[in-house]
Here is the input.
Amino acid sequence: YQAKRDRFLALVSGSRLRPLPCAGTYFVLMDYTDVSNTGDREMAMRLLEHHGVASIPTSAFLYGSEAPPVLRFCFAKQDVTLERAAERLRAV
Here is the structure.
């Protein structure tokens, strides 16, 4: 998974999404502050509807707290899927 993570992060570099340090997981968290100031659920839906990339809003894991402008992306995918997603994310 480390190789997949490193590959995904390299592919997404140059996008306006800023990866946050994550270890021991097959998800990467990305700050979208440079893209939008909308809530994480709205941003996740925008990425899905307009760019075809699925993400998980971190508010799904928070109860009673406001979520930061961060989305969760799974990189446990085939390389071609990561490449397509990264290409779309770089266009955001």
Q: What stands out?
A: The chain has a mean pLDDT of 94. The chain has three helices and four strands. The radius of gyration is 12 Å. The helical segments are 2-12, 40-51, 79-90.
